Amino acid sequence: MTLMRILSITLLFLLLNSDTGHSCSMYKISLHGQTRVGCNEDAWRLTPRIWFENKTANTLYGAAFTGSRLDGVNRYAPQSGMNEAGLVFSRLATHTPENQYARNQHKKKITDPTQYLKDILHHCSTVDEVKQRIDQFDHSYFKEDVFIYVDRSGKYLLVEPFTMTLGNEANYVLSNFCPSATSAADALSLDRYRHGVEFLKHHIDTSIQFFTALSDTMHVCRKRKGDGTLLTSIWNPNEGNVTLYFYHDYQHSLRFNLSEELSKGDHLLDITKLFPPNPEFQQLADYKIPHDTPYMRVILMIAALFFAFTSIYFPVSWFKTMNTKYARVQLLLSVLSLILIAYLYVLFRNINIYYFSAPYQDRYSFWISCSSYIPIVMGLLILPLSILNYLIIKEKLWKPFPRRLFLVSNITIWLLAGLFAYWGLFSIFKP
């Protein structure tokens, strides 16, 4: 196998295994024998759905689910949901800290996470039953998620990658962190969580207006693109209904009754078609990034492969022609190629970069934060490199192939600069 083939396969694997992480928030309120669970799904996906699944000969309860991540053909990964017994769940992305507990090799393996999550609602009516069911599995499979299950009584179960905790507090708020490994101060540093906690200090009731206001308080609408909370669901396990709000517009809502919907048979609804046009959502839909635009993925993958080649070729060429004028520029091009490969990998792995202001700061990775300055460095070098390229071509200082390769490098860098500017990755172009 040639070196370039190895590089191609490696880059393809790394670039296709991208991180589509998102963040969410939730709350549960129990008062006067009534329980409500509110969920905010904060994601950049364009496919929010709600669907209804009846019980079968092998299951006990019908259920409703919401979600936006496509998983297979016309199947979506559940983000929240409720069954006929009034059991509600919510899923939140989290950074899981290093933990002393290892995977339990003796428990059942989760091979189909979507079906696994749906089966819990199809088989369980209380959080105690959920705990018994999950305890059969190696649930550390979900190493970047925390789940909460709430039953009609108001009792809840926290499911973290390495632990489960039952609770019965009347009011509970959760965002993107593992409660067992996060201090109160660190939790309050998260805006969604802090806003919810502070809101509940003043007044609590069980009206839909109150829960709408609480969901609104915990929602996200970022300044740059107007993006943020994709879908808000407020589950009422006592009455068996759910109220939906689309793309942080809390003036328009839809309510679904679980029993009525199940009587229509299994069905899936596109939430974007159920609500009036939303200008901020349209702005999100019009914004193109590699994660949802195939031709952009192809461009970046070809650029990465090209830079992989130049990172090897230019040092070899320099070694053979080190006495040639401007020969050391080839070493600079090799280093720049390696840096750009690393940054393209970061772009594929971190969707957040496209939506937050530059230079993007990652709270969990110093190196990703540092990589956000690469477009700025490239921007400072692009004009001098173009001038050098012109002089080398004009004076025919290098052999034909490295001259042409330098030209293609410059064209590729200019193309990337255009894409970086479109995505707002240059700090001087802050919106």
Question: Explain this structure to me?
Answer:
With 431 residues, the chain is of the alpha+beta class. The protein folds into two domains: 3-16 and 290-429, no CATH class; 23-286, Penicillin V Acylase, Chain A (4-Layer Sandwich). Helices cover 39% and strands 19% of the residues. It is built from 13 helices and 16 strands. It has helices at 3-16, 113-123, 127-134, 184-188, 191-199, 208-218, 258-262, 279-286, 294-320, 329-349, 366-371, 374-395, 400-422; strands at 23-31, 34-42, 49-53, 63-67, 69-70, 76-77, 80-83, 88-93, 145-150, 156-160, 163-167, 171-174, 229-236, 241-246, 254-257, 267-270. The strands form three sheets. The chain has an eight-stranded antiparallel sheet with strand order 11-10-9-8-7-4-3-16. A six-stranded antiparallel sheet has the order 12-1-2-13-14-15. A two-stranded antiparallel ribbon has the order 5-6. It is elongated, with a radius of gyration of 26 Å. The two termini are 47 Å apart. The model is unreliable at 3-21 (pLDDT under 50).
Q: Please give the radius of gyration in angstroms.
A: 26 Å
Number of domains: 2
Please, what is the CATH homologous superfamily of the largest domain? Answer: Penicillin V Acylase, Chain A
Strand proportion: 15-25%
Number of E-state strands: 16
Fill in the CATH topology of the largest domain. Penicillin V Acylase, Chain A
Order of strands, widest sheet = 11-10-9-8-7-4-3-16
Large-scale geometry: elongated
The CATH class label of the largest domain is: Alpha Beta
CATH architecture of the largest domain: 4-Layer Sandwich
Spatial separation of the terminal alpha carbons: 47 Å
Integer average pLDDT: 90
- What is the string of SSEs from the N terminus onward? HEEEEEEEEHHEEEEHHHEEEHEHHHHHH
Uncertain spans: 3-21
